[in-house]
Hints:
Elements: H1 2-11, H2 13-25, H3 37-54, H4 57-61, H5 69-85, H6 89-110, H7 115-158, E1 163-166, E2 169-175, H8 180-197, E3 201-208, H9 214-229, E4 233-237, H10 241-249, E5 258-259, H11 263-273, E6 297-300, E7 303-307, H12 314-331, E8 335-339, H13 348-363, E9 367-371, H14 375-383, E10 392-394, H15 397-408, E11 419-421
Parallel strand pairs: 2-3, 3-4, 4-5, 7-8, 8-9, 9-10
Antiparallel strand pairs: 1-2, 6-7, 6-11
Helix pairs in contact: 2-3, 2-6, 3-5, 5-7, 6-7, 8-9, 12-13
Amino acid sequence: MATDIAKLLQRKQKKVLEYWMNNQLMNEGLRQDLMSNDELRNLSNEFLESLLKALTDKNLKETNSDDLEDVREILAGISISRAQQGYSPAETGIYLFSLKDAIISILQAEVKDDYALLFDAMYNINRLMDSLAIISFETFIKGREEVILRQTDEISEISTPVIRVWDGILALPIIGTLDSARTQVVMESLLQQIVDSGSTIAILDISGVAAVDSLVAQHLIKTVAATRLMGAECIISGIRPEIAQTIVHLGIDLTGIITKATLASALKQAYAMLNLTVRKLEKDKTPQLKVMDRIPILRMGNLLLVTIQIDLYDRLATNLESDLVQMVSKTQAKGVLIDISALSIVDSFMGRILGNIGSMSKILDAETVVVGMQPAVAITLIELGLELKGVHTALNVEKGMELLRIKIGPDEETDSDEDSPE
């Protein structure tokens, strides 16, 4: 009987998988944020294949059979993985019980005419799946405990950071309660950092400790004693009034231990012990270089000459555009020559500024010539789609001056010896 059931389920493996997946996907609590549907199908298919492959007449009745050891191992791995991913025990239980429902549905459809066989098969399947569920819960709890222990260790390490505040000075701020286990972590971390850094002073700051009783005080005294054995001095800071009163009322002897009310006071003491002095620096009176915000514009007759020798940031380029347009209007200049031979690169903003200068100068009846353009600059302007329409170009200043004379015609002021920078 059981052999027939095992073989039946093996033949119906694909159908069992489909029923199982449907049962899982219909569950409103399905966590698709933790595992995608494709990943869930692959995982389910792997487990189902191992289960049905191992299923025989004997182990269907004997759930503790060694034949199912591989199945139990796969299930244990799945349970631990789900615990680490954040699934709840109930969600992992539903994962298995939905498989049991799928198998029973197949059996009810395939052996519905033989009630005795169906009853016996359902009984054995229930026992098998329940035993696997127990294994799943046990390994799930084990996996969850491993996660909790790892997180506890990580939190313990984070909550006891040893900070190197200066050469030879370490600080360890303690927040929360200080029990025996945590005291051991504090001492180990502090002593190891003393060895690694060669520091001679350690500051234990207990500002974040809510209350100090005799046990906490003893832990602090042990930490101070261990630090001194390493050849370093220990200062306890963060002694609030209520903590001081508690220590006195409990009769705890802190004689010989340096204590300070604040971390700042402890640092001051530590600096003094190392013959260090903290002082304010005098304000630097060195005159600061003024950032250029204007490009000089040279007037030569009815021409305006501009030489750009630095990279233009946005404000400088905008000011140049405004200044040139105003100068053209004010002086009735007929030509503007802009030398950009010192620029190795331009951006789209600078390209638009040059185009604007040319367009506005043209409206004011003045020609614009840009000279000294580097090949890289020309390529960049073309790639940016900025062909500088309305702007003439020339190889150098000499060629640019010739081009302007041709464009605007002869003018007696152009050859004048009277130059006026603006």
